[in-house]
User: Fold this.
Amino acid sequence: MPTEQKEFLSIVLPCYREAEHISDVLKEIRSLLEMAEVDFEFVLIDDGSPDDTWQVLNDASSEFPMMRAGRLSRNFGKEAALAAGLQMARGEAVIVMDADGQHPPSLIPEMIKLYRETGVDIVEGTKINRGNETFFSKVSAGIFYLLWNKLSGFDLRGASDFKLMSRRAVDAYLELGERGLFFRGMTAWLGFRRVQVPFEVAERSGGRTGWTTFRLISLALTGITSFSAVPLQIVSLVGILFFAFAILFGIQTLYVYLSGHAVTGFATVIFLLLIIGSLLMFSLGIIGEYLARIYDEVKGRPRYLISKTIGDFDGVARSDLASFE
Assistant:
């Protein structure tokens, strides 16, 4: 448990299309941390933004000397950018938050206070509501978390990426070597003592989200298949049930035939073929998702590549930074 009034804190912010407002967000966070008398650094990861985010970070580096930043060689996704930021963070405690202002900086002093007073390893922000989202997005998120909670055994209701993590928790996260990243699930799997801080999701400070429907579906599939084998077990269970049904149906068909009451049964046959065919395609899809996870893991490619950096990286060469995993 931290005992000093000052400690070295890293603020990790993955950035994507944040050129319009990132400077204002950094100023607000800096003001709050200076009032709290906390020694800190900014670690920003530009996830291959197509706008001027990297140029804005370059220009802001003189105003924020405590800032270090890296630009990924392309858009690897928020999960990879989070992993890159945690890899580069040097603080004894690390706060992970979005750079769009939806994770309120005003909550940071309270998170630091709880961390100091309780000695927990993770202080996690939990959503009171999901903010200004469409009805479809809210329903989809609700269904996903319901399925994930039931299949994985971890409760992520209201979970967010807004967290304060101790150095022990960060190092434990960095030990997890999988390529299929799901930050909320991985930090839940870590365990450790934790407390929750509720917050209301604010409006975006600017820009637009990079989360498309396809990316959200892909993240959901990664989250489920990375933390649970239950879908595969369901396929096996359904196969057993259909096998039992086939035996019973075969006995009934044989009885009807031997008793001389055979019927054409054309519609029944077509109906059964459609059900079995659909079940097989669905089952192959589930198995395919798990095979895709295995395929990504065995390739052994790095989670991300860094093409440019800003600030001091303790003498680590840029070519070495590109090999971080």
Notes: The CA atoms of residues 8 and 91 lie 5 Å apart. The chain has two domains: 8-210+302-321, 230-299. The first strand starts at residue 8 and ends at 15. Confidence is low (pLDDT under 50) at residues 1-5, 315-325.
